[in-house]
């Protein structure tokens, strides 16, 4: 696992989303975020041309709850990436994921 802060200063606050998405895809990483709006932005989706990005479906969670959602969904995330070369996914409760794009 890698944190964005390991590669970009200030947790990539000054880095365009399409830049870190493209970088993560080029490294073959599974990307995790809480920014649901990425799904509606053309440049970010174009950067996701060869990878998978998993986003929390609920924005009203504590940091511990966010981490637990990703942990609970780990098996579903790996199954999804094994079957799909590209996609934007929502991470739901009880370890579920659902493909939102394309």
TrEMBL record:
Name assigned to this protein: VapC45 PIN like domain-containing protein
Residue ranges occupied by any VapC45 PIN like domain in the UniProt entry: 3-53
Lineage: Bacteria, Bacillati, Actinomycetota, Actinomycetes, Propionibacteriales
Superkingdom per UniProt: Bacteria
Organism (species): Kribbella capetownensis
InterPro entries xrefs: VapC45_PIN-like
């Amino acid at each position: 696992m890698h944190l964005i802060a390991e590669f970009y200063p200030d947790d990539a606050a000054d880095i365009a989303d399409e830049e870190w998405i493209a970088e993560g895809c080029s490294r073959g990483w599974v990307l995790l975020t809480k920014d649901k709006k990425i799904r509606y932005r053309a440049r970010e989706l174009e950067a996701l041309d060869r990878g998978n990005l998993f986003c929390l479906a609920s924005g009203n969670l504590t940091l511990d709850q966010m981490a637990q959602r990703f942990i609970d969904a780990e098996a579903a995330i790996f199954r999804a990436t094994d079957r799909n070369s590209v996609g934007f996914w929502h991470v739901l409760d009880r370890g579920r994921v659902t493909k939102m794009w394309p």
